[in-house]
């Protein structure tokens, strides 16, 4: 057995064992008040299950190729995010009325500034200039900006209901529009203009990985699909078990409730960040941007319809409108993102600018 086969075997063992352990932790902790030690153990199992879930999503992505792989990763991560939001909103009651907004906006800031900035920084350090396809990336950024405006900006200014929330008809329109727009983008990305979302070389040609590892076989792909589902179930269940500890910890630290949404988004997007950085280190910055902007798009385009449907059973208001500070940060993100995307090339400076915006978001979330 060669070294690569041995490495795959070792990787396969932990990515099967960790989700199994996470399921055991879920069974033992479900519906119980957990002491501090148990919370730590469940949290470790949750983090391991997240990493295993994205590993299996990457195996499936390798089988189907780009840009389908980026789409699979984004949808898998968004499934986790949506499930966590719904669970915490069901448990939180009226106090969780803004949790969906806070989590979705945090996901947009993390992906469009944190992940994008980090990947541009890594790509520029690796190749001096990070090269990507401006047409595909620009289309993705425009879609993210439109989805964010329809779902998170307009509720602040509509007058159908008092406060930053939609009327039922407006919420239904935003949900349907978000879902249709996301579906249209997926069709363009994977069928009609697939070449706009493929990695480029430094001279602007499509990258060909002649020495890339062969795709996994059908048996390995099916196993990864099954383990992906197991890991997602473990993530959702264990997150419900530790959510009271997260909320009480945020409250005890005197931080705003919005920090809970930031913690959720950071948790579910951590493995996505690792995958994007790995792609940037391999000089596949376009794949990194597909992952980042695809996750932001899926976060809005899939979360808002689910939350709109769940609002039928949720008690209390559903606050989706952003406050003035967040509106400024979103506007700055869109403007800076457009200026970054247009040339199709980025240096360390663009990466640093995006990271500065992300740092401002995190700081203002903790100290508004």
State the main characteristics.
368 residues, mainly alpha, A middle domain of Talin 1, two-stranded antiparallel sheet, 2 strands, 1% strand, globular
Write structural notes for this entry:
The chain is mostly helical. The chain has a single domain (68-216, 242-366), classed as A middle domain of Talin 1 (Up-down Bundle), CATH 1.20.1420.30. It is 75% helix and 1% strand. It contains 11 helices and 2 strands; from the N terminus they run H-H-H-H-E-H-H-H-H-H-H-E-H. It has helices at 3-29, 36-64, 68-92, 99-127, 134-153, 168-192, 218-252, 258-281, 285-310, 324-341, 348-366, and strands at residues 130-131, 345-346. Strands 1-2 form a two-stranded antiparallel sheet. Helix 4 runs antiparallel to helix 9 (285-310), helix 5 (134-153) runs antiparallel to helix 6 (168-192) and helix 6 (168-192) runs antiparallel to helix 9 (285-310). It is globular, with a radius of gyration of 20 Å. The chain starts with a helix and ends with a helix.
Question: What order do the SSEs take from the amino end to the carboxyl end, as H and E?
Answer: HHHHEHHHHHHEH
Shape assignment: globular
For the record, the CATH class is Mainly Alpha
| Fraction in helix | over 70%
Evaluate the radius of gyration. 20 Å
What portion of residues belong to β-strands?
under 5%
How many distinct folded domains? Answer: 1
CATH third-level topology: A middle domain of Talin 1
- Per CATH, which architecture? Up-down Bundle
Helix-and-strand structural type: mainly alpha
Mean pLDDT: 83
**What is the CATH superfamily label?**
NCX, central ion-binding region
């Amino acid at each position: 057995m060669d070294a690569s086969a041995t490495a795959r075997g070792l990787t396969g063992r932990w990515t099967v064992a960790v989700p199994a352990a996470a399921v055991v932790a879920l069974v033992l902790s479900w519906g119980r008040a957990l002491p501090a030690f148990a919370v730590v153990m469940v949290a470790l199992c949750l983090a391991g299950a997240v990493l295993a879930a994205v590993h299996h999503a990457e195996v499936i992505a390798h089988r189907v190729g780009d840009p389908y792989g980026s789409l699979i990763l984004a949808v898998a991560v968004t499934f986790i995010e949506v499930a966590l939001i719904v669970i915490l909103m069901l448990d939180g009651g009226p106090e969780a009325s803004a949790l969906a907004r806070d989590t979705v906006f945090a996901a947009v800031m993390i992906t469009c500034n944190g992940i994008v900035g980090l990947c541009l920084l890594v790509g520029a350090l690796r190749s001096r200039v990070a090269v990507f396809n401006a047409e595909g990336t620009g289309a993705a950024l425009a879609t993210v900006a439109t989805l964010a405006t329809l779902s998170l900006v307009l509720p602040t200014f509509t007058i159908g209901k008092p406060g930053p929330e939609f009327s039922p008809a407006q919420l239904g329109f935003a949900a349907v529009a978000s879902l249709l727009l996301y579906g249209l983008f997926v069709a363009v990305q994977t069928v009609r203009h697939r070449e706009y979302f493929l990695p480029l070389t430094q001279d602007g040609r499509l990258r060909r990985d002649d020495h890339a590892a062969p795709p996994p076989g059908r048996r390995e792909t099916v196993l990864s699909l099954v383990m992906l589902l197991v890991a997602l179930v473990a993530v959702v269940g264990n997150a419900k078990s530790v959510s009271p500890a997260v909320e009480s910890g945020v409250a005890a630290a005197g931080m705003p409730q919005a920090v809970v949404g930031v913690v959720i988004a950071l948790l579910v997007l951590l493995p996505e960040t690792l995958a994007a950085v790995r792609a940037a280190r391999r000089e596949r910055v376009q794949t990194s941007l597909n992952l980042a902007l695809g996750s932001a798009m899926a976060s809005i385009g899939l979360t808002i319809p689910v939350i709109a449907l769940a609002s039928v059973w949720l008690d209390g208001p559903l606050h989706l409108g952003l406050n003035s500070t967040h509106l400024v940060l979103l506007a700055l993100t869109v403007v800076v993102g457009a200026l970054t995307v247009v040339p199709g090339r980025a240096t360390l400076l663009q990466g640093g600018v995006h990271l500065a915006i992300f740092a401002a978001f995190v700081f203002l979330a903790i100290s508004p």
